[in-house]
Give the backbone structure.
Amino acid sequence: MSRRIAFEGIDNFRDFGDYAAGARRLKAGLLYRSGHPARATDADLARLADLGLAVIVDLRRAQEREREREPARRWPGFAAQVIDNDLPQEGLQEWEQFVASSDPTPGSVRDYMLGYYGKAPFEPRYRDLYGRYFRALAETEGAVLVHCAGGKDRTGILCALTHHVAGVGEADVVADYLLTNDMARFAARLPMVSQLTLERFGKTVSDETLLAVMGVEAEYLQVAFAAMRARHGSVDGYLDEALGLDEAQREQIHARVLA
């Protein structure tokens, strides 16, 4: 199947279902991930409405959601459950602070991301969002969309955890995560990202650095999972102890998302 779904104003939209999960298989057309929908066109909104979305998880911080031009657009008759929160990030340097306080290079971006992935799973803000997502996934009928700003890091961790819960093999978990690295998409977006960086931070950042910002590496996800194992003994221990995902909810999720 083609996982990438082209929208006019929504970036990095993909179906992350339809993977083998042990003896079963994740359903297609049920689990979606993307960048933010703030620039969705009317045609995009009509397509979103047709997906039958029952839950939308917006992993962005409050200031990201409220920033000029970036509140999420909704279609007429919108009735999906929206999962978001306004909790502060306590242990993470925010991306804006990193860019504003430094002259980023590909190496410094990579170092920032490695540090981010090692800490993000334990932030109270993400624990709240991730835990509420899994409860909604267990209890709500209909399709689910997970997104942040670029649909790659915060979204990537949560989608990988979803795959883990469903029993998707590690190779497919990583392969799905790496689908963000679409060089044709990067090339098309590079001028806009460069202009936004100049407008927002008053500095010009090299194309090489911006490509590092837009992309992901397998090691990022490995760092996040290793941190979960170090603190909770296993990824399942993290899901149980940090997110409150119990066996009954797992069984409900399996019944919902597995064919």
In short: The beta strands are 14-15, 20-21, 24-25, 31-34, 53-58, 81-83, 143-147. The chain has one domain: 14-257. The chain has a mean pLDDT of 94.
